[in-house]
Amino acid sequence: MFKPDYAAYREITLNGLWKNNPGLVQLLGLCPLMAVTTNMVNGLGLGLATLIALVSSNVAISIVRHYISEEIRIPAFVMIIAANVTLIEMLIKAYFHDLYNILGIFIPLIVTNCIVIGRSEAYAAKNPPIHAGLDSLMMGIGFMLVLMVLGGLRELVGNGTLFSEAHLMFGEAARSLTLSFGDDFKGLLLAALPPGAFIGLGFLVALKNWLDRRSA
Q1: For site-directed labelling of 113, which of 1, 2, 137, 196 has its Cα 20 to 30 A away?
Q2: Transmembrane ranges (predicted)?
Q3: Are 168 and 99 in contact (CB under 8 A)?
């Protein structure tokens, strides 16, 4: 009879969201983290795509892990990840075409994202599907939240807006969700440029480390 291991589930959740967050602790996936977080909606879009690819790939890898020989383990994992990412890319291109044009090459590059490959090798290949699924879900959510927060901060400081392109994901009705400081707000150009992403991420990492030390 299956008995849920709530202590293990809690530890997996805390690791993915905070203790071992891919963006703030492991510092993985920095290329898309820096490139697409010019606003919150872009971060949300790529974060969701990465989350779905991470969960679907790691659950599949966990299920077939006993049937893959050691010699072809990594190539087999990459093929599973590539198949899932290709399907996700096609769905985004079909239903969110404008967002797809913005995210561009960073959607297919999820195949080589260190978070996806790293969790498949370090966790999914060694644990049952329910644990692998929860681990990938929490890691994906943790990464997506970092993308959204960093994108929101850069958008707010750089352009004086928030949710400015929400209609790309939620339809024309979502244009009313845009928050703005007004037309007179000049904004800080550095926040919208790649160096602004590095600086913003640095502040987020420093804030997390400060909170960890304070709680300890």
Answers
A1: 196
A2: 43-64, 76-96, 102-120, 132-153, 187-207
A3: yes
- The answer to whether 162 touches 62, Cβ cutoff 8 Å, is no
Domain tally for the chain? 1
H or E stretch covering 105: none
pTM exceeds 0.90 for this model: yes
Q: Domain for residue 2, yes or no?
A: no
On whether residue 7 sits in a domain, the answer given is no
Domain annotation covers residue 47: yes
The CA-based angle 124-125-128, given to 5 degrees, is 60
Digit-by-digit pLDDT tens for the chain (216 residues) are: 557 788 999 999 999 999 999 999 999 888 888 888 999 999 999 999 999 999 999 999 999 999 999 899 999 999 999 999 999 999 999 999 999 999 988 999 999 888 999 999 999 999 999 999 999 999 999 999 999 999 999 999 999 999 999 999 998 889 998 999 887 888 888 998 889 999 999 999 999 999 999 998
Range of the domain at 210: 12-215
